[in-house]
Amino acid sequence: MKLKYDFVINRVANSLVAVPVGETKGFSGYIKLNETGAFIFEKLKKDVSKEEITDSLLSEFDGCTRPQAEKTVDNFLEKLKAADMLL
Predict the structure, then answer these.
(1) Tens digit of pLDDT for each residue in 71-86?
(2) How far apart are CA 9 and CA 39, in angstroms?
(3) pTM for the predicted model, two decimal places
(4) In what order do the strands lie in the sheet with 31-33?
């Protein structure tokens, strides 16, 4: 899976936001992210599996357990699917 639109992630007033660039057809605005969300968003710029995202989280964030990483990825992907942002 991967993001349907191209985004850039910027820090604005101590917040991370994903802003669409290029052809967005139907999406306008921005998405506020935390550090974990921004990390997952970056992974989704390329076609990647849920397992690959989970493994990357475990490698990147110390102290994260597999069940925590899986739950975080599942919750984040569900929100993106509900917003029709994934291919």
Answers:
(1) 999 999 999 999 888 9
(2) 10
(3) 0.89
(4) 6-12, 15-21, 31-33
Instruction: Report pLDDT digits (tens) over 11-43.
Output: 988 899 998 888 767 677 889 999 999 999 999
Neighbour tally for 36: CB within 10 Å: 16
Return d(Cα 55, Cα 73) in angstroms, integer: 10
For 3, 53, 78, the CA distances from 83, given in Å and listed in that order, are: 11, 19, 9
The first and second tokens of residue 6, run together, are 């191209």
Question: Which uninterrupted H or E stretch holds 15?
Answer: strand 15-21
Reported as a pLDDT band with limits 50, 70 and 90, residue 64 is very high
| Beta bridge partners of residue 31, listed in sequence order | 18
